[in-house]
User: Fold this.
Amino acid sequence: MDLKQMAAQLHTDENTVQRMAQSPDGQALMALIRQQNSAQLQKAMTQGENTSAAEMVELLKTVLSSSEGRSLLQRLSQQLQQ
Assistant:
């Protein structure tokens, strides 16, 4: 699953978002996003379901710039495929 597919699935499936957000990897990812890009995260949270998949991809790109972020996203992607 590539980054755009992951963002699209998270954008359209509320249950997946909730499951991922409550997982240990999801919690770690949110902490990393807050640390690296709090302004974009705040905008996405304010917009809620009106946040575009492209905006979510931009958030994830920031995370991908670190090895920790890449590792977390890889594990979450594997969880999404199960």
